[in-house]
Design brief:
Keywords: Membrane, RNA-binding, Transmembrane, Transmembrane helix. The chain has three domains: 14-129, RRM (RNA recognition motif) domain (Alpha-Beta Plaits, 2-Layer Sandwich), CATH 3.30.70; 135-221, Alpha-Beta Plaits (2-Layer Sandwich); 251-330, Double Stranded RNA Binding Domain (2-Layer Sandwich), CATH 3.30.160. Strand 4 (80-87) and strand 5 (93-101) form a beta hairpin. The protein has nine helices and 17 strands. It is 29% helix and 29% strand. The radius of gyration is 23 Å and the shape is globular.
Length: 335
């Protein structure tokens, strides 16, 4: 079944009702990178955006419920500046949303009125003040990854990056932890979704992406920051090596691509993979994307893969398939 047909067949009745409501009310809903947004600003808004403390988090939503029910409900207690509903690839919502009001009074009224409110029989939602966090922690980065290289990749796959700071990982040996600061909670949330759902790897290690914990932030700030330059004196150089061994042992296609990029000083490849369909015979259809810092454009495409009993996940098989295509496009002959 084609992906578009498959996704359109899910929750079709409510999707049709949503479209009819949007047409009737003239409300414009824009979907970008896994979230659907109304307003920000809404029609007729004049002046600056509302201050901090005006946004509420809405959780435990029925996944087949959309804005035609939610926006009128939350507009009962105040003027909405923005409403964001988090979406899955299939068109269902992810069970949570954010509502930003024109003032703090509206947010307080929403919490008082709708926390533990049953939007449907048996479905009591959670409404509370949004934390509006703007910082992420990314643990498990390879020690060969430099700050400049990581920042360049993040600017390609996420929006609103303000700063990137590298520390020695407090949890993993021979690994780094990065603190990423974004312009807004929305930008940080979208970056977190992209990095987590993309099953990202940098330098061969699995990255752990989460909101920056206040205790972790304090611990990191009490430690000496790692040098941001790739040049470190002495034998404990953690930057990109100046010379690569002449004949590395290539265990698989990913090793081959990493080695080629190191030899050409292109930077460490970053993979994003997402399973978008699975059939009854065990085949998985993956969307794949690889960013190589030294290449002007990313490589992307779709691939059918199947786990072959080697212990590799479908994501690993998809990365291997894309890496093979990239090597061929770069003119590399595999032996």
């Amino acid at each position: 079944m084609e992906a578009e047909t498959w996704t359109n067949s899910i929750n079709q009745t409510n999707k049709v009702a949503l479209l009819a409501w949007a047409k009737e009310t003239g409300i414009d809903l824009v979907q970008i990178n896994g979230q659907r947004r109304y307003g920000g600003p809404p029609p007729g808004w004049v002046g600056d955006p509302p201050p901090a403390g005006t946004e509420v988090f809405i959780g435990k939503l029925p996944q087949d419920m959309y804005e035609n029910t939610l926006i009128p409900l939350f507009q009962r207690v105040g003027k909405l500046y923005e409403f964001r509903l988090m979406m899955t690839f299939s068109g269902l919502n992810r069970g949570f949303a954010y509502a930003k009001y024109s003032n703090r009074h509206g947010a307080k009224e929403a919490i008082a009125a709708f926390n533990n409110f049953e939007v449907r029989e048996g479905y009591a939602i959670v409404v509370c003040k949004s934390t509006e966090k703007c910082e992420l922690s990314v643990d498990g980065l390879a020690t060969s990854v430099s700050r400049q290289e990581l920042e360049a990749v993040l600017r390609r796959v996420t929006e609103g990056v303000l700063s990137v700071t590298l520390y020695t990982s407090p949890c993993w040996k021979r690994a780094q932890l990065a603190v990423l600061k974004y312009t807004s909670h929305q930008a940080a949330a979208m970056a977190k979704k992209t990095l987590m759902e993309g099953n990202v790897r940098l330098g061969g290690l699995e990255m752990r992406v989460d909101w920056l914990n206040p205790d972790m932030k304090q611990k990191l700030q009490s430690c000496e920051k790692k040098p941001s330059s790739s040049r470190v004196q002495g034998s404990k150089c953690l930057g990109v090596p100046k010379q690569v061994p002449q004949s590395p042992v290539l265990h698989n296609v990913l090793d081959c691509l990493n080695t080629l990029c190191q030899k050409q000083y292109l930077g460490t490849p970053l993979f994003l993979t997402k399973c978008v369909q699975a059939d009854a015979n065990g085949w998985l259809w993956f969307w794949c994307w690889v960013v190589i810092p030294g290449c002007p454009v990313p490589f992307s495409g779709f691939a059918w893969v199947r786990q072959d009993g080697t212990g590799r996940s479908g994501h690993e098989e998809a990365k291997i398939a894309l890496a093979l295509q990239v090597l061929r496009m770069l003119g590399c002959q595999l032996t």
